[in-house]
């Protein structure tokens, strides 16, 4: 894994490489080979930041990328204190900065920074979809937005030194790998969905027209390795088993490629999946899952990402553990880098 002390280049999803020249008291950032912003740093008693020059570039972009750099550079850093002579209106409106009690001083909080959708969601966000209640299959719930197509999330994982991304399932492109993954004895022991290509096409076709479930492919450096189902819990079979909220999301998870198993990879993709769901709709306050109660390894991985086991309960086909992570818990002391 990369040594964060040696970090000099940080990848952004749509803006190219962010290159840094950092000393004890200065930080100079360049984006796509052009100077972006230069900052004066004071590190004690906590990290304080002041803009020296932004080279004619948009100040808001410079502030955001500088916050990203400083938080990625030090995953333990929870707050940056910025000094401005003029009010940074755009950064305040977005929640990137909040005012302190001192005139001209503003804070960027890690827990707020990672809740801002851009640039991680790109064009796929549905955060402004209005609320309208409907009834389907005897369940009253909010009308769900149209499902996105293509890539919905991308972030460079600094610890792994790799891109982690999520895209929607393309049945023609993904059917054979889905079939191979589901027929793996390891996967089949938990999913119990072995079958032929035709059976798996039918499985994916049904989910494609189901408005409460979004099927996703997880990728490392654009190489598919996992299949996920993200569902609205209010309309799902899990709803009767706990006090479900209108915007709770649930997840089913399958890692198909053996070379992408292990705790470091799980920490990366599970954080990305939950991060995406919390960004996709700010009304989502909880993400839930219901792995088999005897799947101790997966439950342990989830607990390492902030989930807790609320209880065990019985589905018709399995004894399940109800795993829950709340928005506040996920973003508090946020482990993303």
Automatic annotation (TrEMBL):
Annotated keywords: Cytoplasm, Transferase
Pfam family, one: Acetyltransf_8
GO function terms (MF aspect): N-acyltransferase activity
Pathway field: Siderophore biosynthesis
Cell compartment(s), UniProt: Cytoplasm
InterPro entries, per database record: Acyl_CoA_acyltransferase (IPR016181), Acyltransferase_MbtK/IucB-like (IPR019432)
GO biological process, one term: siderophore biosynthetic process
GO cellular component, one term: cytoplasm
Family matches, as SMART domains: AlcB
Annotated Acyltransferase MbtK/IucB-like conserved domain residues: 167-214
Protein name: N-acetyltransferase
Organism encoding this protein: Pseudomonas arsenicoxydans
């Amino acid at each position: 894994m990369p040594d964060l002390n040696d970090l000099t280049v940080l990848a952004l999803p749509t803006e190219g490489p962010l290159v840094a020249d950092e000393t004890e008291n200065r930080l100079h950032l360049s984006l796509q080979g052009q100077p972006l912003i230069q900052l004066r740093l004071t590190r004690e008693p906590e990290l304080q930041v002041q803009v020296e020059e932004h080279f004619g570039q948009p100040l808001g972009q410079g502030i955001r990328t500088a916050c990203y750099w400083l938080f990625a550079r030090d995953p333990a850093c929870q707050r940056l204190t910025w000094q401005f002579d003029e009010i940074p209106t755009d950064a305040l409106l977005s929640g990137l900065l909040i005012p302190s009690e001192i005139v001209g001083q503003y804070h960027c909080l890690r827990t707020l920074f990672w809740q801002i959708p851009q640039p991680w969601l790109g064009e796929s966000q549905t955060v402004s979809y209005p609320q309208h209640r409907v009834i389907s299959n005897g369940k009253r719930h909010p009308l769900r937005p149209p499902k996105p197509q293509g890539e919905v999330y991308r972030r460079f994982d600094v610890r792994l030194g790799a891109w982690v991304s999520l895209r929607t399932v393309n049945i023609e492109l993904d059917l054979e790998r889905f079939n191979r993954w589901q027929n793996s004895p390891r996967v089949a022991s938990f999913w119990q969905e072995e079958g032929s290509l035709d059976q798996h096409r039918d499985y994916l076709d049904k989910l494609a027209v189901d408005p409460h479930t979004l099927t996703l492919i997880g990728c490392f450096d654009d190489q598919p390795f996992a299949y996920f189902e993200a569902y609205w819990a209010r309309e799902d079979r899990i709803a009767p088993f706990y006090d479900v909220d209108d915007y709770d999301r649930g997840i089913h998870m399958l890692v198909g490629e053996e070379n992408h198993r292990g705790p470091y990879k799980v920490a990366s993709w599970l954080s990305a999946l939950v991060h995406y769901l919390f960004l996709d709709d700010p009304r989502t306050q909880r993400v839930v899952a219901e792995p088999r109660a005897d799947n101790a390894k997966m439950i342990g991985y989830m607990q390492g990402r902030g989930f807790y086991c609320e209880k065990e309960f019985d589905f018709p086909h399995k004894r399940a553990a109800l795993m829950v992570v709340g928005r506040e818990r996920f973003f508090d002391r946020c482990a993303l880098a």
